[in-house]
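Q: What would this complex look like in 3D?
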Amino acid sequence: MKLANLIGQRFKERPADCVIDSHALMVRGGYMKNVGNGIFSEFPVLKRITAKIENIIREEMDAIDGQEVLFPVVLPADLWDESGRYESVGNELLRFTDRSKSRLVLAMTHEEAAVHLVREYAQSYTKYPFMIYQIQRKFRDEARPRAGMIRVREFTMKDAYSFHTSQEDLEQYYARCYDSYNRIFARAGIPEVVTVASDSGMMGGNISHEYMLLTPVGEDSIVICEECDYRANMEAAENQVINDVTGEEAELTCVETPECKTIEDVCRFLKSDETLSCKAVVYQKSSDFSFVVAFVRGDYEVNETKLRNLAGEELYPADITEDSPLVAGYIGPYGISDKVTYYLDVSLKGLKNVVAGANKEGYHYTGLNFERDLDNPQFFDISKVKEGGICPHCGKKTISIKRGIEVGNIFQLGTKYTESMNMQYADENGELKYPIMGCYGIGVGRLAASICEAHHDEYGPIWPITIAPWEVQVCCLRADDAETKKVADELYDTLQKKQTEVLYDDREGVRPGAMFSDADLLGVPIRVVVSPRNLKENMVEITTRDKSVKEMVPVSEAVDYILSLKQKLYEQIMLHV
Amino acid sequence: MKLANLIGQRFKERPADCVIDSHALMVRGGYMKNVGNGIFSEFPVLKRITAKIENIIREEMDAIDGQEVLFPVVLPADLWDESGRYESVGNELLRFTDRSKSRLVLAMTHEEAAVHLVREYAQSYTKYPFMIYQIQRKFRDEARPRAGMIRVREFTMKDAYSFHTSQEDLEQYYARCYDSYNRIFARAGIPEVVTVASDSGMMGGNISHEYMLLTPVGEDSIVICEECDYRANMEAAENQVINDVTGEEAELTCVETPECKTIEDVCRFLKSDETLSCKAVVYQKSSDFSFVVAFVRGDYEVNETKLRNLAGEELYPADITEDSPLVAGYIGPYGISDKVTYYLDVSLKGLKNVVAGANKEGYHYTGLNFERDLDNPQFFDISKVKEGGICPHCGKKTISIKRGIEVGNIFQLGTKYTESMNMQYADENGELKYPIMGCYGIGVGRLAASICEAHHDEYGPIWPITIAPWEVQVCCLRADDAETKKVADELYDTLQKKQTEVLYDDREGVRPGAMFSDADLLGVPIRVVVSPRNLKENMVEITTRDKSVKEMVPVSEAVDYILSLKQKLYEQIMLHV
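A: Here is my prediction, written as structure tokens for the whole assembly.
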């Protein structure tokens, strides 16, 4: 391919709407173009990258006995009625009607379609286990698309669905898929991806993992133990708090705390420590609008995912009015209205002489002791883990909080979809049973952007050779010089004949600086510079985009050198697979 | 791949809702499953076929300098506002809104997205010509999906868009693409596809061609000359009629024709010939609901596409009420209301003493002579060509009407989209100009179904080897017999090592008849049968799905025989490319 013909424009200025580097570089490099809110077109450079990523994924899915299928993007709402998700999923599910007023949805995930496809096929235990996957477009009506290809509305995804006759069999397959995903990310050049335990959210099921690329620009918080191998998504991370408070129990006293509406105000006013205070965060149930109060230690935050799982239903931040059975700013567990559900967090357990709201405008209690003052208090884990917290595995105070981009996820779904959609098989004894499912996703575009985020410098992406748009870029400085052009042309031809993907920049009248800027933005791993100056010494310059190699090589040896360098770059990747 | 693991069930009974063979066979063979009205999932067998078709298309598009890109399935309505098609396209364009009430459409074609992608890139004449293509899902809200994958609502399509600075350059590229399409269809095993001139319809532009697979179950009518190379879609085919009527002109006479509402009634009543009658077909304009009457000779039909193009706007079948300026059943050109637009068809030219409506309830004229009785009558081509009609190229009465499936189309679009969307480039003199576009489509799933329609017998598809799901199927009869199983296993292994795609049926307890029925439904071109009986003579049976080969081959020579047969099947395909 000649660069002069490559469709997509490159430019210098960082676009104002790009908040992360990978997005800015991929816009500047002519990889993608915004079509609408969270909707992009891919230029040829990006399409070449995503095609390579898709091939890696396809090979690895085939290697774990996956069979590729294709589900539609547009699905009848009936299917989602069957699983109950037409009702239960929020606005991310785009619902609409066709010309005959039939209800349709844009598939944001394909569990329903997967069950629909195989439920007649897999009616006997002899058909199990099996896995089907597809690489297909999806649409998720995100409220806040951001960061280029990281959080979009329309995207290409590999999604896989496995079906089993026992939990053990699912777990065995889950482990294979777990390893397969590690191979995929390693082959794509980011072996540093880590897995974290995660909350299954709207997918249902219990055990699930996310594959996280750690980066400060990630939108997920990840809880990592610096000592052992504990890793979890913030939503799923268990919070352990040990309160070792000594001293006598004081008397429960109602004190006036005028104008103290926040826990900071109260603690300042009472000269008490936040770690001895009880903070209230109020929600309402989506079902009946009744109030749910989460009490956490003053210096902790509520983990809404854990709270929601505990409450067993959807919650939203409360709107407290004058009619509410709660006094905003003065809510505490002692004497709280019995119209309210409340939960005490583990961070409160073991505290003595706590400051808490008195459920009375302008008053708080001091000297609250849960075990003494409340009726059989129970403590639940509904708070977020903090930096330096206790690792639930090794018990050391070695918790560190990192940011990450989720590049893949795997779920043990159980029978949520097979039961709701009535997919059954006859077992060895002819008894009808529901198959157990797993599901496994990777977003292709997000993966490309994540690799760019992990591997770039200020000038452009540094693509791993396995997914790079081309393997080699030949830059012919002074293409108007016949001798230079001849050597560069020959290199281009010979390398292509040797099954090498070459991008050839033989543009005339382009300054070397501009040529190199373009090459940096395209991020091709091996660069060959042919120039009159080097040719005087019968040499070409060969460098790698990551700057680890920079050699002058005799023209006659250039092809062999490049082929062996290329081989080495592939081997470096495969070291981590 | 072992057949025992292949996902998708096969069965014997022809499904009641399948009107064409290919649909029935592809449902019976476990290729596809209906998800909703005109919406299908693809099982692994079909996915393997469509992937091969996509690869052929991709190679051929790359060979004519196409660059692969990807456009979104969901597009903002703004883009379609720019081209004017948000308004002008009918209900096939599915319009809906997202969570923030922004208007979106499901792309049924991507001209707007193509112009959007490149309009900043291609601002200088030096960037031209170029072509971009994608292979992507599309959705067209068809009123009447039918015939399985032939007419669906959601489908995978290769669509390509080329951009040029002159009509000559477009025409040169169009010719390259024309040939490229012929190569694609030949490589996919249907070199018999013919091109026909077509009407451009809602795409705009002038010259366009459709690639038609002739088959009685096709939904398009194609006009073919048996003598010369003239071929056109019925919508675009020019109708030539020569009326050689002798004799005197009779007097124009208004006669009573009670209860004669159709042209057949009138001719019977007046004992006149239909070929001497003037039939009226009435439409209304979508813009102002005014009436448009098409007059054709009694034995011809109106070609609505040509009529619409002549009228220059959308028309729909009229609803004639008592208030209308027309008398239903008695409409004729003489004395017709001047509130009505009417057109005379070429089939009326040269007639004498015609029978026509008198625009008066219960009366017709006889002896109507257009040149004498009407004021400067003009004749337009607004009728459908008939079997045995005159070829507009060679002038012989050799027109034949065939049925066909449209498997591809190519259009010269002109500047319809670049002008409306304001895409411009600076030419050599710095003058701003609109690029000229071409566009080129192939439906992947429809092509697969068409190949099946063209190549099947009563037992199943006969896939050309280039797109077959596997190249070879090994059937092990009596897999419970150790010796038989061993030979079959070895064949399976060895063939795979020799880069051959093998489907291996080693199911135990399946009768040979059932095994062969399954193999027939899967349509793999080469079949190897390993059975105890043949092995007694140290032989295996090798056949082709199309029955052209049926050989007993010694076990020791089987692999070589199969590889050479495979090679021959590929060569047979390439003979037509």
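A: To summarize the key features: The two ends of chain B are 30 Å apart (CA to CA). Chain B has a mean pLDDT of 93.
Q: Very helpful, thank you.
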